Amino acid sequence: MAFARLVACFVLYSSLGHIPSSLGVILRTTDKIVWANEFEPIELTCLIESISTNNPRIEWKKIKNGVPSYVYFQNKIAGDLEHRAQLREPANILIFNTTRSDTAEYRCEVAAIDDQRDFDEILISLAVRVKPVVPRCYVPEAVTVGTSTELRCLENEGFPAPHYRWFHNNEELPQDPKNSPKFVNSSYSINPDTGSLKFRRVRKDDAGEYYCQAMNDAGHAQCPEQTMEVYDIDILGIFLKSFGALLVFFCLAASICHSCKRGCFSKKGHNENK
């Protein structure tokens, strides 16, 4: 009777797709989605929960853009992880220094010929965080009170895409100026995703040193400080207009002198009539 119950249980497990661990190889991992910082070590876990075969075949494959390539094959590290990784018991892969090119899916495969369930695999997604580089910043040198202007900040190396913060005279600008008594009268708006700092109406107090900081989970970087002057009147525009008027005057005077030297203004028949 007890044997009949055991057989019945086995048939029930088999019909449900559950095979007892003693009859097959079963894998698991501690994390199916793994994040790592660039140039730091990371271990991808492939834990063998059950197996009967003494020397199973273990393979690791890297799948990038849908194309698989070997990482561990015939008992040695292969591919672009050669000399940068090693297999650790039972079937884990340790990468010594991850790079951005290591971002991909990794598949651990274990084949056990002596087990009833002779094969199992597990898929792990690895994403490598990349610290931002120094962002490119644009700060206008001079603006006029009451006008609108935009300061820009851009960084395209970091992963995940960084968020941006702006600093004025070494003090961080709050994203919403209305929440700060010091900046409540300011008319700026910050887009932390694009790095844009826009002023609807520039004030005298907005003059000073500006720099931007790009940051993600891997770190941050900032551009050098740049000065923005704020004038009551458009001094630069007045200077350019005055310079343009003087330039036109000198060009006209030079043209008249040149024409006089060529005798363009003399009366051709004056001497003959006289």
Automatic annotation (TrEMBL):
The keyword Metal-binding does not apply. One of its GO terms (cellular component) is protein complex involved in cell adhesion. One of its GO terms (biological process) is cell migration. GO terms for molecular function: cell-cell adhesion mediator activity; integrin binding; protein heterodimerization activity; protein homodimerization activity. Residues 20-125, 132-229 form the Ig-like domain. Belongs to the immunoglobulin superfamily. This is Junctional adhesion molecule 3a. It comes from Sphaeramia orbicularis. The gene is jam3a.
